[in-house]
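Good morning,

Both structures are done.
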Amino acid sequence: MRVTPLAAAATAALFVATLAGCTAAEGNGDSSSEPITIGLLTDLSGAASIFGPPTRDAAELAVEQINAEGGVNGRDVRLVVADETGVPTAGLSAAQRLIQEDQVAVLFGQHNSATRDAVAPVTSAAGIPYFHTPLAEGNFCEANVISNGEVPAQQLAPAIPFVQDETGSNKWFLLGADYVWGQTVVADAQKYIEANGGEVVGKELVPIGTTDFQSIITKIKQSGAQLIVPALFGGDAITFEKQAFDAGVGNSEVQRLGVIYETGTLGAMGADVTDGMYVSMAYNEAIQSVANEEFLAAYYAKFGDDAAPQTALSQQTFVAIRAWAQAANEAKSTKSVDVLGALSGLTYAGPGGDVTFGANHFATQSIVLTQSQPDGSSTVVMTFDSVDPAQDCTEPMGK
């Protein structure tokens, strides 16, 4: 997810200059017996704060498991978490502290694309791998940056024809947040809809932070839409769906295909509002597999039955940390070039299925199409295995 990061980019450029000839990860050389410090940058406050706590908890679980299995190259791993706040300048400052003060060997970021754009140069200058873990718009290529979150091609290409076949409907309204992720989802959705014989009868982009969707709801009513792709997140998504439901344009009238309606967001909407919604993401707690059962058992044993549910966003961070440790152990090194070389082509068997990290910096992975039930739970309707991200980064990882 992305917002315009002009000020953050300028600050990043200055910071890169200060790092010339200096590697923040020097304290994490493999010859030491000291713990290897890793950093997590996520939203613990701000508009996307609903995503932060389960992400932090998933990261803590990953580190606990890695240490229980012998650590990385015989050394324990220590996690330091920083609040990104949803603001690129604040996220950049937090990343600077993790790199300069905490001397992290690797950075994991579950945050918007604007912060990614600001932070990537400083991680490159510091000589550390940087995993951007949430779903995003794609089309971002840097030698040290790994993007294992879903991209629109993975979420939409298989789901759109399936939903059209299941519902017998093909008239779509596309609604997105007016920044690069929402814009990309809307553009890609139109492409896949038209390629599969559907029709886009309306589309709108709205500013982040919109609180009144009545004019949009009127346009949806007038369009004759039978289906909606709502590319809205967090509080905006909750506000839209509640207002639409109250106005008689809920899911029972116009079928949703959500792409970031994770469990926490659906829970905040309420079961009456979400009943029947489809969601296309890489993970849901409803997945029936031994790996997911073990993951959830460990998670709730550690954090209690009242812990925030695990979502695709938080689970992707868990996968990234475990995959980094696997690659570092295979490489017998925590140096960026060695870890990224070992990561290229590596498959990690995660709670949502196998995730294969490609030389193109993105991940091939399973996508699950779920449907919300009357009690607020989700059921897996279809699993699309080994979905290619359709990304083309010409420079291999770590080069």
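Second structure follows.
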Amino acid sequence: MPSLIILISVIALLAFSMFLVFLSRYQKCPSDKIMVIYGKVGNNEDGSSRSAKCIHGGAAFIWPVVQSYQFLDLTPISISVDLTKALSRQNIRIDVPSRFTVGISTENGVMQNAAERLLGLKLNEIQELARDIIFGQLRLIIATMDIEEINTDRDKFLEAVSSNVETELKKIGLRLINVNVTDITDESGYIVALGREAAAKAINDAKCSVAEKERDGAIGEANARRDQRIEVANANSMAITGENTAQVQISQSNAARREKEAEALKIATAAEKVQAAKSLEESYAAEKEAEQIRAQREKATLEADVIVQTEIKKQQIEIEAEAEAEKIRRQARGESDAIYMQMEAKARGMQELLTKQALGLSQIVEAAGGDSSDALRLMLADKMEDLMKIQVDAIKNIKIDKVTVWDSAGGEKSSTANFLSGLVKSIPPMNELFDMAGMQLPNFLGSGKKISSVPDEAEHKFESNKKSSDAGAKTTFFQES
């Protein structure tokens, strides 16, 4: 058991130690430095082994044993380059004191050059290396330019210096930050002479300019005086002419002014009257419009009162009419429902009655042996007594108060008998009733010969009585009380 604890402790200690080693080998690169990892860092794209790996910013793990690292400082380096006796294109030696500011480049590829050529060098060693490169390129540039170009066209000179020097500095991993060239001098005094020449020329140009300006000033002064005298004389002449013309114009102006004043007074008077009339007209129009507006307002007030009252009454009438209509509708609906129920009850009673009658008729037909004609005869025979009673009732209420008869001595039928026969025939003939029912009366009740209608028979009797009267016979008449 103790040995197991010791083993676990040793394993934990080893793991912690490896973790600490891992943390110590994980390096972070500051922003003002370049971390150069060298050793086993892989191969290039062409398959050749890489000498170093440069990292600007970020972090990387440094494998123990197979890898190591160092930092390159990105702090700018100021280099003083006092170039003396540099030969120009004109074979004149000049001195060019200048100061260059350089630094390690962070450009891809150029950093690799810095890692290969500057890693491990001290600051003064890097300065000396850069100074040598700058001296050589500066001499080369001066040899290709005239002193006038170097002295006067500084931009061109600095552009050539920056282009050539930076190209060479990139080969060792540096970049040019700034170039500052001070006064340029030469041994022969050529630049001084150029300065004196330029100064003398400037002075002479200035003197000529001053003399020309003085001459122009004297001429201008004389011309000004001459012009002054001429202008003064012309002005005096023009003044006199102007005064005379002015007097005439003043007189004309006064006359025109008085005329204009009179005309203006007339116009003003007319305008005042017109304005007064217009004012009165506008006043009357305003009063008329005010009266119209007042009348319209009063009319609108009255109309509003009447319309409101009328509208209220109209709404009341409409509400009452709607209520009355609703009442009538409900009453009509109730009456119609009652009538409907009454008619429905009556229809059910009628249906029941007809059903019973149909049932009775079917039983009568069955009793008649199935013959519908016999069944109809049975029904009529059953009602014969009622029919006879109806015929008797038709004439039983006729009252004859008095009958006076004048009869002729002839052997024909008497008028009294004809009257009674026609009276009896006015009753609906029984034979016709039986004929309509499909039955025949017995022989002892009549032959069944159709009797003429009562109106035709009465007309015939009337004509017969008229003829008898014409023959000298006595007329038969009756009087009903």
